[in-house]
Amino acid sequence: MTLPADWVTCTLEDLLHPAPGAIVDGPFGSALKSSDYTSQGCRVIRLNNINVATFNDTDKAYVDARRFPELRRHEAQTGDILTAALGDPLGRSCLVPEHLGSAIVKADCFRSRLHPRVDAGLIMFWLNSPPLARYFSEHGKGVGRIRINLAVLRTAPLPLPPEDMQAALVERIRTVMARSEKARSEAQLALRAASALKVSGLKAGVTGRLTARWRETATDVESVNALLERIPAPTQAPGGRKPTDTRMAGQAAIAVNDPGTPLPPRWRWTPLLRLARQETGHTPSRRHPEYWDGDVPWLGIPDARKHHGAVIDRTAQTITAAGLEGSSARILPARTVCLSRTASVGYVTLLGRPMATSQDFVTWTCSPALMPEYLLYALMAEGKGIRRFGRGSTHTTIYFPELRALHIALPPLEEQQAITGRIKRLLYRADMLASEASRAMGVADDLVVRTITQAMSGALGAASSVSGASARSLLDDIAVERRTLEVERKHRKPNRSPKPASPITPPNPDRFMTPDQITAAVREAGGSMRADTLWKLSGLPIDIFYRRIRDELAAGRLTESSDKESLLAH
Questions:
Q1: pLDDT tens, 12-25?
Q2: pTM over 0.70
Protein backbone atom coordinates (compact mmCIF):
# COMPACT_ATOMS: atom_id res chain seq x y z
CA MET A 1 0.00 0.00 0.00
CA THR A 2 1.50 3.36 -1.09
CA LEU A 3 1.15 5.97 1.67
CA PRO A 4 1.61 9.76 1.71
CA ALA A 5 5.12 10.94 2.64
CA ASP A 6 4.12 12.05 6.15
CA TRP A 7 2.41 8.69 6.96
CA VAL A 8 4.16 5.60 8.26
CA THR A 9 3.47 1.87 8.56
CA CYS A 10 3.66 0.50 12.09
CA THR A 11 2.16 -2.24 14.25
CA LEU A 12 -0.57 -2.04 16.84
CA GLU A 13 2.08 -2.56 19.53
CA ASP A 14 3.83 0.64 18.42
CA LEU A 15 0.65 2.59 19.20
CA LEU A 16 -0.11 1.15 22.64
CA HIS A 17 -0.05 3.21 25.79
CA PRO A 18 3.53 3.06 27.13
CA ALA A 19 2.51 1.83 30.58
CA PRO A 20 2.21 -1.89 31.42
CA GLY A 21 -1.05 -3.73 30.73
CA ALA A 22 -1.90 -1.73 27.61
CA ILE A 23 -3.02 -4.89 25.78
CA VAL A 24 -4.52 -7.94 27.52
CA ASP A 25 -6.82 -10.86 26.94
CA GLY A 26 -9.47 -12.28 29.27
CA PRO A 27 -8.87 -14.37 32.41
CA PHE A 28 -7.55 -17.84 31.75
CA GLY A 29 -9.77 -20.90 32.12
CA SER A 30 -11.20 -21.36 35.59
CA ALA A 31 -10.34 -17.82 36.71
CA LEU A 32 -13.73 -16.73 35.33
CA LYS A 33 -16.45 -19.27 34.57
CA SER A 34 -20.02 -18.87 33.39
CA SER A 35 -21.16 -20.11 36.79
CA ASP A 36 -19.53 -17.01 38.31
CA TYR A 37 -21.95 -14.65 36.54
CA THR A 38 -24.36 -12.55 38.58
CA SER A 39 -27.33 -10.34 37.73
CA GLN A 40 -25.40 -7.14 38.50
CA GLY A 41 -21.96 -5.88 39.44
CA CYS A 42 -18.92 -5.61 37.17
CA ARG A 43 -19.76 -5.99 33.49
CA VAL A 44 -18.19 -8.95 31.66
CA ILE A 45 -17.49 -8.27 27.97
CA ARG A 46 -17.93 -11.43 25.87
CA LEU A 47 -17.53 -12.34 22.21
CA ASN A 48 -21.19 -11.66 21.46
CA ASN A 49 -20.72 -8.05 22.55
CA ILE A 50 -18.08 -7.38 19.89
CA ASN A 51 -19.54 -6.59 16.48
CA VAL A 52 -17.88 -4.86 13.53
CA ALA A 53 -17.35 -1.25 14.69
CA THR A 54 -20.33 -1.62 17.06
CA PHE A 55 -20.70 -2.74 20.67
CA ASN A 56 -23.67 -5.10 21.10
CA ASP A 57 -25.18 -4.22 24.46
CA THR A 58 -28.11 -6.65 24.35
CA ASP A 59 -26.21 -9.68 25.67
CA LYS A 60 -25.29 -8.75 29.26
CA ALA A 61 -23.30 -10.63 31.87
CA TYR A 62 -21.84 -9.53 35.22
CA VAL A 63 -19.53 -10.74 37.94
CA ASP A 64 -19.69 -9.79 41.63
CA ALA A 65 -18.12 -6.33 42.07
CA ARG A 66 -16.07 -7.66 45.00
CA ARG A 67 -14.07 -9.75 42.53
CA PHE A 68 -13.08 -6.72 40.46
CA PRO A 69 -9.75 -6.06 42.28
CA GLU A 70 -8.46 -9.56 41.49
CA LEU A 71 -9.54 -9.17 37.86
CA ARG A 72 -8.35 -5.58 37.40
CA ARG A 73 -5.63 -6.63 34.96
CA HIS A 74 -8.41 -7.43 32.46
CA GLU A 75 -10.22 -4.11 32.93
CA ALA A 76 -11.76 -2.37 29.91
CA GLN A 77 -12.30 1.38 30.03
CA THR A 78 -14.25 3.78 27.83
CA GLY A 79 -12.45 4.26 24.51
CA ASP A 80 -10.42 1.05 24.69
CA ILE A 81 -10.46 -1.18 21.61
CA LEU A 82 -12.11 -4.61 21.92
CA THR A 83 -11.10 -7.34 19.47
CA ALA A 84 -12.61 -10.80 19.02
CA ALA A 85 -10.10 -13.66 18.89
CA LEU A 86 -12.48 -15.95 17.01
CA GLY A 87 -15.78 -15.93 15.16
CA ASP A 88 -16.86 -14.29 11.95
CA PRO A 89 -15.30 -12.02 10.94
CA LEU A 90 -12.03 -12.92 12.66
CA GLY A 91 -10.49 -9.95 14.47
CA ARG A 92 -13.65 -7.81 14.39
CA SER A 93 -13.25 -4.81 16.68
CA CYS A 94 -15.23 -2.07 18.39
CA LEU A 95 -14.76 0.54 21.12
CA VAL A 96 -15.82 0.26 24.76
CA PRO A 97 -18.87 2.58 25.08
CA GLU A 98 -19.13 5.32 27.69
CA HIS A 99 -22.07 3.92 29.69
CA LEU A 100 -20.53 0.56 30.55
CA GLY A 101 -19.01 1.40 33.95
CA SER A 102 -16.52 -1.00 35.51
CA ALA A 103 -15.92 -3.85 33.09
CA ILE A 104 -13.53 -6.68 32.26
CA VAL A 105 -12.96 -8.76 29.12
CA LYS A 106 -13.57 -12.49 29.06
CA ALA A 107 -11.46 -15.18 27.40
CA ASP A 108 -11.08 -14.84 23.62
CA CYS A 109 -11.60 -11.09 23.89
CA PHE A 110 -8.65 -8.69 23.62
CA ARG A 111 -8.52 -5.19 25.08
CA SER A 112 -6.09 -2.63 23.63
CA ARG A 113 -5.45 0.76 25.22
CA LEU A 114 -3.74 3.17 22.86
CA HIS A 115 -1.53 6.17 23.49
CA PRO A 116 -3.72 9.25 24.06
CA ARG A 117 -2.25 10.94 20.98
CA VAL A 118 -3.51 8.11 18.76
CA ASP A 119 -7.19 8.13 17.82
CA ALA A 120 -8.56 4.76 18.97
CA GLY A 121 -11.58 5.13 16.68
CA LEU A 122 -9.35 5.35 13.62
CA ILE A 123 -7.33 2.28 14.57
CA MET A 124 -10.56 0.42 15.31
CA PHE A 125 -11.71 1.13 11.75
CA TRP A 126 -8.35 -0.09 10.42
CA LEU A 127 -8.75 -3.37 12.35
CA ASN A 128 -12.12 -3.92 10.65
CA SER A 129 -10.79 -3.22 7.15
CA PRO A 130 -10.38 -5.78 4.31
CA PRO A 131 -6.53 -5.69 4.50
CA LEU A 132 -6.61 -6.55 8.21
CA ALA A 133 -9.31 -9.18 7.63
CA ARG A 134 -6.91 -10.88 5.22
CA TYR A 135 -4.07 -10.54 7.74
CA PHE A 136 -6.09 -12.13 10.56
CA SER A 137 -7.31 -14.91 8.27
CA GLU A 138 -3.75 -15.72 7.15
CA HIS A 139 -2.45 -15.79 10.74
CA GLY A 140 -5.36 -17.61 12.38
CA LYS A 141 -4.65 -20.95 14.03
CA GLY A 142 -6.71 -23.98 15.00
CA VAL A 143 -8.87 -26.70 13.53
CA GLY A 144 -12.60 -26.06 13.25
CA ARG A 145 -12.71 -22.77 15.17
CA ILE A 146 -9.93 -20.58 13.76
CA ARG A 147 -8.61 -17.97 16.20
CA ILE A 148 -5.91 -15.36 16.51
CA ASN A 149 -3.65 -14.92 19.52
CA LEU A 150 -2.37 -11.83 21.27
CA ALA A 151 0.91 -11.89 19.35
CA VAL A 152 -0.94 -11.71 16.03
CA LEU A 153 -2.91 -8.70 17.24
CA ARG A 154 0.22 -6.97 18.57
CA THR A 155 1.98 -7.25 15.23
CA ALA A 156 -1.00 -6.28 13.07
CA PRO A 157 0.35 -3.91 10.37
CA LEU A 158 -1.34 -0.52 10.38
CA PRO A 159 -0.91 2.75 8.46
CA LEU A 160 -0.53 5.77 10.75
CA PRO A 161 -1.36 9.30 9.57
CA PRO A 162 -0.03 12.41 11.36
CA GLU A 163 -1.70 13.26 14.63
CA ASP A 164 -3.60 16.29 13.35
CA MET A 165 -5.20 14.30 10.53
CA GLN A 166 -6.62 11.42 12.58
CA ALA A 167 -9.77 13.04 13.97
CA ALA A 168 -10.74 14.38 10.54
CA LEU A 169 -10.41 10.93 8.99
CA VAL A 170 -12.57 9.40 11.73
CA GLU A 171 -15.19 12.08 11.15
CA ARG A 172 -15.25 11.38 7.41
CA ILE A 173 -15.63 7.64 7.98
CA ARG A 174 -18.38 8.10 10.57
CA THR A 175 -20.26 10.45 8.22
CA VAL A 176 -20.20 7.80 5.49
CA MET A 177 -21.25 5.14 8.02
CA ALA A 178 -24.22 7.25 9.11
CA ARG A 179 -25.33 7.68 5.49
CA SER A 180 -24.82 3.99 4.86
CA GLU A 181 -26.84 3.03 7.93
CA LYS A 182 -29.68 5.31 6.85
CA ALA A 183 -29.69 3.76 3.39
CA ARG A 184 -29.52 0.30 4.94
CA SER A 185 -32.49 1.04 7.20
CA GLU A 186 -34.55 2.21 4.24
CA ALA A 187 -33.57 -0.89 2.29
CA GLN A 188 -34.58 -3.10 5.22
CA LEU A 189 -37.96 -1.38 5.28
CA ALA A 190 -38.31 -2.19 1.59
CA LEU A 191 -37.37 -5.82 2.25
CA ARG A 192 -40.01 -6.08 4.97
CA ALA A 193 -42.52 -4.44 2.64
CA ALA A 194 -41.70 -6.98 -0.07
CA SER A 195 -42.16 -9.84 2.39
CA ALA A 196 -45.44 -8.38 3.64
CA LEU A 197 -46.61 -7.95 0.05
CA LYS A 198 -45.99 -11.64 -0.62
CA VAL A 199 -47.83 -12.76 2.51
CA SER A 200 -50.81 -10.48 2.03
CA GLY A 201 -50.96 -11.19 -1.70
CA LEU A 202 -50.99 -14.96 -1.20
CA LYS A 203 -53.71 -14.78 1.44
CA ALA A 204 -55.79 -12.33 -0.60
CA GLY A 205 -55.53 -14.60 -3.62
CA VAL A 206 -56.48 -17.95 -2.09
CA THR A 207 -59.33 -16.45 -0.04
CA GLY A 208 -60.91 -14.80 -3.10
CA ARG A 209 -60.23 -11.15 -2.30
CA LEU A 210 -57.97 -10.63 -5.34
CA THR A 211 -60.72 -11.83 -7.69
CA ALA A 212 -63.72 -10.15 -6.04
CA ARG A 213 -64.26 -7.78 -8.97
CA TRP A 214 -63.47 -10.56 -11.45
CA ARG A 215 -66.41 -12.57 -10.05
CA GLU A 216 -68.76 -9.64 -10.62
CA THR A 217 -68.29 -9.88 -14.37
CA ALA A 218 -67.47 -13.60 -14.74
CA THR A 219 -71.00 -14.89 -14.33
CA ASP A 220 -70.89 -17.79 -16.78
CA VAL A 221 -68.44 -19.90 -14.75
CA GLU A 222 -68.65 -23.59 -13.96
CA SER A 223 -69.16 -24.05 -10.21
CA VAL A 224 -67.01 -26.33 -8.08
CA ASN A 225 -69.93 -28.72 -7.64
CA ALA A 226 -70.30 -29.06 -11.41
CA LEU A 227 -66.52 -29.37 -11.77
CA LEU A 228 -66.34 -32.26 -9.33
CA GLU A 229 -69.24 -34.02 -10.99
CA ARG A 230 -67.38 -33.82 -14.30
CA ILE A 231 -63.91 -34.84 -13.07
CA PRO A 232 -63.57 -38.10 -11.14
CA ALA A 233 -61.51 -38.48 -7.99
CA PRO A 234 -57.93 -39.69 -8.50
CA THR A 235 -56.93 -43.18 -7.43
CA GLN A 236 -55.14 -43.20 -4.07
CA ALA A 237 -52.32 -45.53 -3.07
CA PRO A 238 -53.63 -48.56 -1.16
CA GLY A 239 -53.32 -48.76 2.63
CA GLY A 240 -52.20 -45.94 4.86
CA ARG A 241 -53.61 -44.29 7.96
CA LYS A 242 -57.21 -43.18 8.16
CA PRO A 243 -57.94 -39.43 8.14
CA THR A 244 -58.44 -37.82 11.55
CA ASP A 245 -61.86 -36.57 12.62
CA THR A 246 -60.31 -33.52 14.28
CA ARG A 247 -61.20 -30.17 12.76
CA MET A 248 -58.50 -27.45 12.61
CA ALA A 249 -58.83 -24.20 10.70
CA GLY A 250 -55.78 -22.79 8.94
CA GLN A 251 -54.76 -19.20 8.26
CA ALA A 252 -56.09 -18.96 4.70
CA ALA A 253 -57.26 -21.74 2.39
CA ILE A 254 -56.01 -24.97 4.01
CA ALA A 255 -57.66 -26.78 6.95
CA VAL A 256 -57.82 -30.17 8.59
CA ASN A 257 -61.36 -31.29 7.66
CA ASP A 258 -64.01 -28.75 6.72
CA PRO A 259 -63.64 -25.77 9.10
CA GLY A 260 -67.00 -24.31 8.09
CA THR A 261 -65.41 -20.97 7.22
CA PRO A 262 -67.58 -18.99 4.74
CA LEU A 263 -66.27 -18.95 1.16
CA PRO A 264 -67.00 -16.82 -1.94
CA PRO A 265 -69.84 -17.87 -4.26
CA ARG A 266 -69.27 -21.11 -6.23
CA TRP A 267 -66.34 -22.08 -3.95
CA ARG A 268 -66.31 -25.15 -1.71
CA TRP A 269 -64.17 -26.69 1.03
CA THR A 270 -62.94 -29.87 -0.66
CA PRO A 271 -60.75 -32.76 0.58
CA LEU A 272 -57.37 -32.81 -1.12
CA LEU A 273 -57.74 -36.56 -1.51
CA ARG A 274 -60.69 -35.79 -3.81
CA LEU A 275 -58.52 -33.54 -5.97
CA ALA A 276 -55.02 -35.07 -5.99
CA ARG A 277 -53.21 -38.38 -5.54
CA GLN A 278 -51.36 -38.16 -2.22
CA GLU A 279 -48.04 -39.97 -1.75
CA THR A 280 -44.74 -39.75 0.08
CA GLY A 281 -41.17 -40.74 -0.75
CA HIS A 282 -38.35 -42.83 0.60
CA THR A 283 -34.58 -42.70 1.10
CA PRO A 284 -32.59 -45.57 -0.45
CA SER A 285 -30.10 -47.17 1.93
CA ARG A 286 -26.87 -45.20 2.33
CA ARG A 287 -25.08 -48.52 2.90
CA HIS A 288 -25.44 -49.25 -0.81
CA PRO A 289 -23.27 -46.84 -2.83
CA GLU A 290 -24.71 -48.31 -6.01
CA TYR A 291 -28.09 -46.74 -5.07
CA TRP A 292 -26.71 -43.18 -5.34
CA ASP A 293 -25.32 -40.72 -7.90
CA GLY A 294 -27.43 -41.96 -10.76
CA ASP A 295 -29.69 -40.27 -13.30
CA VAL A 296 -32.85 -39.94 -11.16
CA PRO A 297 -33.29 -36.59 -9.35
CA TRP A 298 -34.08 -37.08 -5.66
CA LEU A 299 -35.70 -34.22 -3.71
CA GLY A 300 -34.38 -33.57 -0.20
CA ILE A 301 -35.08 -30.90 2.43
CA PRO A 302 -32.14 -28.67 1.32
CA ASP A 303 -33.61 -28.62 -2.21
CA ALA A 304 -37.05 -27.62 -0.94
CA ARG A 305 -35.53 -24.93 1.28
CA LYS A 306 -33.63 -23.49 -1.68
CA HIS A 307 -36.62 -23.67 -4.07
CA HIS A 308 -39.44 -22.77 -1.66
CA GLY A 309 -42.39 -21.47 -3.64
CA ALA A 310 -40.72 -22.21 -6.97
CA VAL A 311 -40.31 -24.90 -9.61
CA ILE A 312 -37.37 -27.27 -9.13
CA ASP A 313 -35.62 -28.94 -12.07
CA ARG A 314 -32.36 -30.07 -10.48
CA THR A 315 -31.62 -31.66 -7.10
CA ALA A 316 -28.45 -31.81 -5.03
CA GLN A 317 -28.57 -35.62 -4.88
CA THR A 318 -29.57 -38.26 -7.39
CA ILE A 319 -30.31 -41.98 -7.17
CA THR A 320 -29.98 -44.90 -9.58
CA ALA A 321 -32.48 -47.34 -11.02
CA ALA A 322 -31.12 -49.84 -8.48
CA GLY A 323 -31.93 -47.33 -5.74
CA LEU A 324 -35.53 -47.19 -6.94
CA GLU A 325 -35.76 -50.97 -7.10
CA GLY A 326 -34.21 -51.44 -3.65
CA SER A 327 -36.41 -48.93 -1.83
CA SER A 328 -39.96 -47.63 -1.60
CA ALA A 329 -39.04 -44.50 -3.54
CA ARG A 330 -40.81 -43.96 -6.82
CA ILE A 331 -40.67 -41.41 -9.61
CA LEU A 332 -43.40 -38.78 -9.37
CA PRO A 333 -44.61 -36.92 -12.47
CA ALA A 334 -43.74 -33.31 -13.28
CA ARG A 335 -45.99 -30.65 -11.70
CA THR A 336 -46.38 -32.68 -8.52
CA VAL A 337 -46.64 -30.42 -5.44
CA CYS A 338 -44.29 -31.38 -2.56
CA LEU A 339 -44.60 -30.18 1.07
CA SER A 340 -41.95 -30.85 3.72
CA ARG A 341 -43.73 -32.36 6.70
CA THR A 342 -40.89 -33.24 9.14
CA ALA A 343 -38.10 -31.24 10.83
CA SER A 344 -38.30 -28.23 8.47
CA VAL A 345 -42.08 -28.10 8.11
CA GLY A 346 -43.66 -25.87 5.49
CA TYR A 347 -41.28 -25.74 2.52
CA VAL A 348 -43.27 -26.30 -0.65
CA THR A 349 -42.07 -26.71 -4.21
CA LEU A 350 -43.35 -27.82 -7.61
CA LEU A 351 -41.54 -30.53 -9.57
CA GLY A 352 -40.37 -29.26 -12.95
CA ARG A 353 -39.52 -32.77 -14.16
CA PRO A 354 -40.16 -36.35 -12.99
CA MET A 355 -38.21 -37.13 -9.81
CA ALA A 356 -38.28 -39.05 -6.53
CA THR A 357 -38.45 -37.58 -3.02
CA SER A 358 -37.45 -38.47 0.50
CA GLN A 359 -39.95 -39.56 3.14
CA ASP A 360 -39.79 -36.01 4.57
CA PHE A 361 -42.35 -34.93 1.99
CA VAL A 362 -46.01 -35.41 1.33
CA THR A 363 -46.83 -35.00 -2.35
CA TRP A 364 -49.95 -34.29 -4.39
CA THR A 365 -50.27 -35.11 -8.06
CA CYS A 366 -53.27 -32.99 -9.01
CA SER A 367 -56.25 -34.04 -11.07
CA PRO A 368 -57.63 -31.65 -13.75
CA ALA A 369 -59.91 -30.17 -11.06
CA LEU A 370 -57.02 -28.54 -9.19
CA MET A 371 -54.24 -26.41 -10.65
CA PRO A 372 -50.88 -27.37 -9.08
CA GLU A 373 -49.93 -23.66 -8.90
CA TYR A 374 -53.09 -22.89 -6.93
CA LEU A 375 -52.30 -25.67 -4.43
CA LEU A 376 -48.71 -24.37 -4.20
CA TYR A 377 -49.91 -20.86 -3.38
CA ALA A 378 -52.55 -22.12 -0.93
CA LEU A 379 -49.87 -24.03 1.02
CA MET A 380 -47.50 -21.05 0.89
CA ALA A 381 -50.24 -18.76 2.24
CA GLU A 382 -50.32 -20.80 5.45
CA GLY A 383 -46.67 -19.89 6.13
CA LYS A 384 -45.31 -21.12 9.45
CA GLY A 385 -48.91 -21.46 10.63
CA ILE A 386 -49.08 -24.80 8.86
CA ARG A 387 -47.19 -26.24 11.83
CA ARG A 388 -50.42 -26.07 13.83
CA PHE A 389 -51.47 -29.19 11.95
CA GLY A 390 -48.45 -31.08 13.31
CA ARG A 391 -47.29 -32.41 16.66
CA GLY A 392 -44.07 -32.16 18.64
CA SER A 393 -42.65 -29.16 20.54
CA THR A 394 -38.99 -29.61 19.56
CA HIS A 395 -39.31 -31.16 16.09
CA THR A 396 -42.76 -30.66 14.62
CA THR A 397 -44.08 -33.33 12.25
CA ILE A 398 -47.37 -33.36 10.36
CA TYR A 399 -48.57 -36.96 10.50
CA PHE A 400 -50.67 -38.73 7.88
CA PRO A 401 -54.02 -38.78 9.75
CA GLU A 402 -53.95 -34.96 9.53
CA LEU A 403 -52.50 -34.90 6.02
CA ARG A 404 -55.16 -37.25 4.71
CA ALA A 405 -57.83 -34.98 6.24
CA LEU A 406 -56.56 -31.77 4.62
CA HIS A 407 -59.17 -29.64 2.87
CA ILE A 408 -58.67 -26.72 0.48
CA ALA A 409 -60.86 -23.72 -0.27
CA LEU A 410 -61.47 -24.63 -3.91
CA PRO A 411 -62.58 -22.01 -6.45
CA PRO A 412 -63.97 -22.81 -9.90
CA LEU A 413 -61.25 -23.79 -12.38
CA GLU A 414 -61.46 -20.51 -14.31
CA GLU A 415 -61.09 -18.56 -11.07
CA GLN A 416 -58.09 -20.69 -10.10
CA GLN A 417 -56.47 -19.55 -13.33
CA ALA A 418 -57.30 -15.89 -12.60
CA ILE A 419 -55.98 -16.16 -9.03
CA THR A 420 -52.69 -17.84 -9.98
CA GLY A 421 -52.08 -15.24 -12.70
CA ARG A 422 -52.62 -12.36 -10.27
CA ILE A 423 -50.49 -13.94 -7.53
CA LYS A 424 -47.70 -14.70 -9.99
CA ARG A 425 -47.54 -11.04 -11.10
CA LEU A 426 -47.70 -9.84 -7.49
CA LEU A 427 -44.90 -12.18 -6.38
CA TYR A 428 -42.79 -11.03 -9.31
CA ARG A 429 -43.15 -7.39 -8.23
CA ALA A 430 -42.35 -8.35 -4.63
CA ASP A 431 -39.24 -10.24 -5.76
CA MET A 432 -38.10 -7.26 -7.83
CA LEU A 433 -38.57 -4.97 -4.81
CA ALA A 434 -36.65 -7.38 -2.58
CA SER A 435 -33.88 -7.69 -5.16
CA GLU A 436 -33.49 -3.91 -5.41
CA ALA A 437 -33.51 -3.59 -1.63
CA SER A 438 -30.85 -6.28 -1.27
CA ARG A 439 -28.75 -4.57 -3.94
CA ALA A 440 -29.09 -1.25 -2.11
CA MET A 441 -27.96 -2.87 1.14
CA GLY A 442 -24.93 -4.29 -0.63
CA VAL A 443 -24.07 -0.88 -2.09
CA ALA A 444 -24.40 0.73 1.34
CA ASP A 445 -22.11 -1.86 2.94
CA ASP A 446 -19.62 -1.60 0.09
CA LEU A 447 -19.52 2.19 0.46
CA VAL A 448 -18.25 1.87 4.03
CA VAL A 449 -15.65 -0.73 3.05
CA ARG A 450 -14.39 1.36 0.14
CA THR A 451 -14.27 4.49 2.30
CA ILE A 452 -12.17 2.80 4.99
CA THR A 453 -9.88 1.29 2.36
CA GLN A 454 -9.40 4.69 0.72
CA ALA A 455 -8.77 6.30 4.09
CA MET A 456 -6.11 3.71 4.93
CA SER A 457 -4.15 4.60 1.80
CA GLY A 458 -4.34 8.35 2.44
CA ALA A 459 -6.63 8.88 -0.54
CA LEU A 460 -9.45 10.29 1.60
CA GLY A 461 -9.27 13.86 2.83
CA ALA A 462 -6.16 16.02 3.15
CA ALA A 463 -3.05 14.70 1.44
CA SER A 464 -0.65 15.94 4.11
CA SER A 465 -0.49 17.24 7.65
CA VAL A 466 -1.48 20.85 8.28
CA SER A 467 1.23 21.36 10.90
CA GLY A 468 3.89 19.57 8.89
CA ALA A 469 4.52 17.08 11.70
CA SER A 470 4.95 13.55 10.41
CA ALA A 471 3.58 10.32 11.81
CA ARG A 472 7.19 9.25 12.38
CA SER A 473 7.56 12.03 14.94
CA LEU A 474 4.47 10.78 16.75
CA LEU A 475 5.87 7.23 16.84
CA ASP A 476 9.16 8.57 18.16
CA ASP A 477 7.38 10.44 20.95
CA ILE A 478 5.51 7.29 21.97
CA ALA A 479 8.76 5.30 21.91
CA VAL A 480 10.48 7.90 24.12
CA GLU A 481 7.68 7.77 26.65
CA ARG A 482 7.87 4.00 26.71
CA ARG A 483 11.64 4.04 27.30
CA THR A 484 11.28 6.70 29.97
CA LEU A 485 8.79 4.62 31.90
CA GLU A 486 10.97 1.54 31.55
CA VAL A 487 13.95 3.42 33.02
CA GLU A 488 11.83 4.76 35.88
CA ARG A 489 10.57 1.28 36.72
CA LYS A 490 14.11 -0.14 36.71
CA HIS A 491 15.47 2.57 39.03
CA ARG A 492 12.52 2.68 41.36
CA LYS A 493 13.55 1.68 44.86
CA PRO A 494 12.06 -1.67 46.01
CA ASN A 495 10.75 -0.19 49.29
CA ARG A 496 8.91 2.64 47.58
CA SER A 497 5.22 1.82 47.36
CA PRO A 498 3.57 2.82 44.09
CA LYS A 499 0.74 5.29 44.23
CA PRO A 500 -2.68 3.59 44.32
CA ALA A 501 -3.65 5.17 41.03
CA SER A 502 -4.65 3.69 37.69
CA PRO A 503 -2.00 1.27 36.42
CA ILE A 504 -1.70 3.38 33.28
CA THR A 505 -0.41 6.90 34.03
CA PRO A 506 1.21 8.93 31.25
CA PRO A 507 4.69 10.33 31.91
CA ASN A 508 5.47 14.03 31.77
CA PRO A 509 5.84 14.94 28.08
CA ASP A 510 8.07 17.94 29.00
CA ARG A 511 11.00 15.58 29.63
CA PHE A 512 11.84 15.49 25.92
CA MET A 513 11.67 17.87 22.97
CA THR A 514 9.18 17.83 20.13
CA PRO A 515 10.39 18.77 16.61
CA ASP A 516 9.07 22.33 17.04
CA GLN A 517 10.89 22.68 20.37
CA ILE A 518 14.16 21.50 18.79
CA THR A 519 13.97 24.20 16.13
CA ALA A 520 12.89 26.80 18.72
CA ALA A 521 15.90 25.93 20.92
CA VAL A 522 18.27 26.62 18.03
CA ARG A 523 16.56 29.95 17.36
CA GLU A 524 16.76 30.94 21.04
CA ALA A 525 20.50 30.14 20.98
CA GLY A 526 20.99 32.80 18.32
CA GLY A 527 20.16 30.66 15.31
CA SER A 528 23.06 28.21 15.69
CA MET A 529 23.84 25.32 18.05
CA ARG A 530 26.20 22.39 18.00
CA ALA A 531 24.43 19.12 17.24
CA ASP A 532 25.85 17.30 20.30
CA THR A 533 24.78 20.13 22.60
CA LEU A 534 21.27 20.10 21.12
CA TRP A 535 21.05 16.31 21.56
CA LYS A 536 21.90 16.52 25.28
CA LEU A 537 19.38 19.33 25.70
CA SER A 538 16.61 17.37 23.93
CA GLY A 539 16.66 14.40 26.31
CA LEU A 540 15.98 12.13 23.32
CA PRO A 541 17.60 8.77 22.52
CA ILE A 542 20.28 9.36 19.88
CA ASP A 543 18.51 7.44 17.10
CA ILE A 544 15.25 9.28 17.57
CA PHE A 545 17.08 12.64 17.90
CA TYR A 546 18.82 12.22 14.54
CA ARG A 547 15.61 11.02 12.91
CA ARG A 548 13.90 14.23 14.04
CA ILE A 549 16.81 16.32 12.84
CA ARG A 550 16.56 14.68 9.41
CA ASP A 551 12.84 15.48 9.31
CA GLU A 552 13.51 19.13 10.22
CA LEU A 553 16.26 19.36 7.61
CA ALA A 554 13.98 17.85 4.97
CA ALA A 555 11.23 20.32 5.87
CA GLY A 556 13.69 23.22 5.54
CA ARG A 557 13.25 24.46 9.11
CA LEU A 558 16.87 23.65 9.94
CA THR A 559 20.07 23.59 7.88
CA GLU A 560 23.57 22.29 8.60
CA SER A 561 26.67 24.41 8.92
CA SER A 562 29.40 23.93 6.33
CA ASP A 563 31.44 21.81 8.77
CA LYS A 564 28.38 19.68 9.62
CA GLU A 565 28.99 20.29 13.34
CA SER A 566 26.22 22.82 13.98
CA LEU A 567 22.56 23.27 13.13
CA LEU A 568 21.15 26.57 11.90
CA ALA A 569 17.60 27.87 12.27
CA HIS A 570 16.15 30.59 10.07
A1: 999 999 988 999 99
A2: no
